[in-house]
Design goal:
single chain; about 210 residues; alpha+beta; 4-stranded antiparallel beta sheet; 8 strands; ubiquitin protein ligase binding
């Protein structure tokens, strides 16, 4: 940007036509504004320190266990050797409905985990993390002492949709929903089996062998 600005200034000294000078002036102001809005460069030693502290590549944590008491939601994350890290390498940021965990430079890798849309609000001030042998424990302080049926709003909605799909007074409709789910989630062998059963049931119904269409 600085080199662009210098070149535009040089062209301005050579330009004689008003229209060309106006265009160059506009470009000059535009580049100056871009330079002004640029974040200041970090000192080299700070940049190198950050790079070394975040060395290696980042792994997203998907496996965890969780439990709850009257006051806390507890999330357990297994990470071999995590207790050997400096305390500042294990960071958790909390908001009222989320938290994210960052473990830096554990055996040459960084580990992250993010939970958004927690089922109920938590107390940011009362929440914390504990590092134990091969485990990080994230403690989310409940704002209200009540039982959570799951961790996130998305999980709750997913469970409700699944329940609604099978909660029907018509047994044949419930069976049909179950077959559809098995077909959608099954492998090729499962799909062939369901297709065969479907064809056979249609044939039997057309012959009047069975009264109900499954």
């Amino acid at each position: 940007l600085q080199k662009d600005l210098e070149e535009v200034k040089e062209l301005l000294t050579k330009a004689t036509r008003k229209r060309v000078r106006d265009v160059l002036m506009t470009e000059k102001h535009k580049i100056e504004l871009e330079i002004k809005n640029q974040p200041p460069p970090k000192p080299k030693d700070v940049a190198e320190e950050e790079k070394s502290s975040l060395g290696g590549y980042t792994v997203k944590i998907n496996n965890y266990g969780w439990d709850q008491s009257d006051k806390f939601i507890k999330i357990y994350i297994s990470l071999s050797g995590v207790q050997k890290l400096p305390a500042e390498n294990v960071q958790v940021n909390f908001t009222e409905r989320s938290f994210d965990l960052l473990v830096k430079n554990l055996n040459g890798k960084n580990y992250t985990m993010t939970f958004n849309n927690l089922l109920k609000p938590i107390s940011v001030e009362g929440s914390s993390r504990k590092v134990k042998t091969d485990t990080v424990l994230v403690m989310c302080k409940k704002k209200r002492e009540e039982k959570w049926e799951c961790l996130t709003q998305v999980e709750k909605e997913s469970k409700e949709k699944e329940k609604a799909a099978y909660d029907t007074s018509d047994p044949s409709e419930g069976l049909m929903n179950l077959l559809k789910k098995m077909y959608a989630e099954g492998d090729d062998e499962m799909k062939r089996t369901i297709n065969k059963a479907w064809v056979e049931s249609r044939e039997k119904q057309s012959k009047g062998d069975i009264p109900m269409d499954i």
